[in-house]
Design brief:
- The complex is a heterodimer.
- By secondary structure, chain A is an all-beta fold.
- Chain A has a single domain, classed as Sandwich (Immunoglobulin-like).
- Chain A is 0% helix and 51% strand.
- Chain B has no helices and twelve strands.
- Classes of the chains: A mainly beta, B mainly beta.
- At the A-B interface, strand 4, strand 5 and strand 9 of A face strand 5, strand 6, strand 10 and strand 11 of B.
């Protein structure tokens, strides 16, 4: 089974702290994504990466950065955490499919509920 | 940019009955994939069903089926013989055809309650 693991299920941080959310997948997937999930807003894409050291901004990148030094690990960084970044964060990965490269499902981590106080 | 809209924040259904969740999307691409994901209280996202845009036949997975209307850009999910375990948040999602660099875009979600 494909496994996507997020480093923490629950996290409480103080305003102004630098926060690292880690995501590791064990199936050699090329594409990795970070979303935040808020009630009524669904999943909004923060950043994604389609290869090592490659990254693309999503719809809400402000206040976040990412790092992908190794294929299996995609880190989300909150440079200076603020209370409006309190949310659920979900990591996902998608392989390059054998057929057309896009006909594959996303695999998700269990989510990190981050509270910034 | 692609957008996905779910206009029903909440739905409820009686056990053993049928319910339909709505989804519309906007895209200029001709080839793409559509998905329905389920998120139970455990928060783990589970793929329910997927549809390839170039296939005219609607996808079916056991009690779950879709009504894919490409011209109308509509992709609804029908759950037949609803079970208590179907209670969850359901998300509609879109992904384009690029092999890399293609984002996965989600709708706002529909919270489904199943009443015994």
């Amino acid at each position: 089974d494909v496994k996507v693991t997020q480093s923490s299920r629950y996290l409480v941080k103080r305003t102004g702290e630098k926060v690292f959310l880690e995501c590791v997948q064990d199936m050699d997937h090329e594409n990795m994504f970070w979303y935040r999930q808020d009630p009524g807003l669904g999943l909004r894409l923060i950043y994604f990466s389609y290869d090592v050291k490659m990254k693309e901004k999503g719809d809400i990148p402000e206040g976040y950065s990412v790092s992908r030094e190794k294929k299996e690990r995609f880190s989300l960084i909150l440079e200076s955490a603020s209370t409006n970044q309190t949310s659920m964060y979900l990591c996902a990965s998608i392989p390059i499919g054998a057929r057309r490269g896009w006909d594959t499902e996303a695999f998700f981590g269990q989510g990190t509920r981050l509270t910034v106080v | 940019a692609q957008t996905v809209t779910q206009s029903q924040p909440e739905m409820s259904v009686q056990e053993a009955e049928t319910v339909t969740l709505s989804c519309t999307y906007d895209t200029s691409e001709s080839d793409y994939y559509l998905f329905w994901y389920k998120q139970p209280p455990s928060r783990q996202m589970i793929l329910v069903i997927r549809q390839e845009a170039y296939k005219q036949q609607n996808a079916t997975e056991n009690r779950f089926s879709v009504n894919f209307q490409k011209a109308a850009k509509s992709f609804s999910l029908k759950i037949s013989d609803s079970q208590l375990g179907d209670a969850a948040m359901y998300f509609c999602a879109y992904r384009g055809q690029e092999t890399s660099g293609s984002r996965l875009t989600f709708g706002e979600g529909t919270q489904l309650t199943v009443n015994p």
